[in-house]
Write a structure and sequence with these properties.
The protein has about 300 residues and is an all-alpha fold. Helices cover about 85% and strands about 0% of the residues. This is DMT family transporter.
């Protein structure tokens, strides 16, 4: 009986891991398909994404008979800034390139935060950081167009905002209640901004670009690959060791890079492959070194 329960637990974790992995990767692929394909503009995309996420989470809270709870005042702001910069960044960058910059910024910001808190880097972490910067230099070296450089800046900003959002949420007691509150407040902010933008566009006799297909993409991303996947990720990381969760996160940009060719028709160049492999190797070295140290520390204490 014990073995059967253990096997069921392992199957549950594997299935949950696969759902989260492909959900996170799908977030980038669907966003690029909608924004790169000009099915919808970045601001309406962000508004629909955040409000759709808020709606599905409020429904979940109603089922569980709990209430949204704001954990930190900055969290909705961080989520809003991340979503907006993410959308405008993916209007300029391909899914593969955008994901690499996003992931780099997330990891770099979290590492900088730990250093600020007194964390001292090991030799492996310094080595990994250097390797990552080399990969970043190789990747940026192949981009010369101004719009794409702006897209890089936006994606780096999105990654930093997401890292800040994650750092603030680490001490949250109820992840579902906190996530619901964050999506609700950031969704309201997006609606207000979109309304102001609509008035300005109307004043200039312009029309906000929104297609039905773009709305569907935005709703799918907001409700499924954003809100629900974020909640499932919080559940999953409580079941995994630090090392395993670190490796899982590394697989997301790999899936995006591989999938961007058949699904979006993106060209994967030798430079992108070399830069991506170098960056991911460096980040993996830093993350695994940090996770292994933490695991050893927890075991000894």
């Amino acid at each position: 009986m014990f073995k059967e329960n253990h096997d069921m637990s392992r199957v549950r974790i594997i299935l949950l891991t696969l759902i989260v992995l492909f959900g996170m990767a799908g977030n980038s692929l669907l966003a690029r398909a909608a924004l790169g394909g000009h099915l919808i503009g970045p601001l309406p995309f962000t508004t629909i994404r955040l409000t759709s996420g808020a709606v599905i989470l409020i429904v979940l809270m109603a089922v569980t008979k709990t209430r949204p709870k704001l954990h930190h005042l900055l969290m909705p702001f961080m989520l809003f800034f991340y979503a907006l910069a993410f959308a405008y960044g993916y209007e300029q960058l391909g899914a593969a390139t955008g994901t690499l910059f996003l992931f780099f910024a997330i990891q770099a910001t979290m590492l900088a935060w730990e250093i600020r808190g007194g964390h001292r880097l090991s030799k492996l972490q310094w080595t990994g950081s250097g390797i990552t910067l080399i990969g970043l230099w190789v990747l940026v070296g192949g981009i010369s167009h101004v719009p794409k450089l702006l897209g890089i800046g936006l994606m780096l900003g999105a990654g930093a905002a997401w890292a800040g959002y994650s750092i603030l949420g680490k001490s949250s007691v109820d992840d579902l209640a906190t996530t619901t509150a964050n999506f609700t407040y950031s969704g309201l902010a997006a609606i207000i901004l979109l309304a102001i933008y609509a008035v300005i566009e109307h004043w200039h006799h312009e029309v906000i670009h929104i297609s039905i297909e773009g709305v569907y993409y935005s709703m799918l991303i907001g409700a499924i690959t954003s809100a629900l996947i974020y909640v499932l990720w919080y559940i999953l990381i409580k079941e995994l060791t630090g090392v395993t969760s670190a490796v899982i996160q590394m697989l997301v940009p790999v899936i995006v890079v591989i999938s961007a060719v058949p699904l979006l028709g993106e060209q994967i160049t030798i430079r992108l492959i070399l830069a991506g492999a170098t960056m991911l190797s460096g980040i993996l070295l830093v993350t695994l070194s940090k996770s292994i140290r933490k695991s050893v520390s927890d075991t000894c204490s």
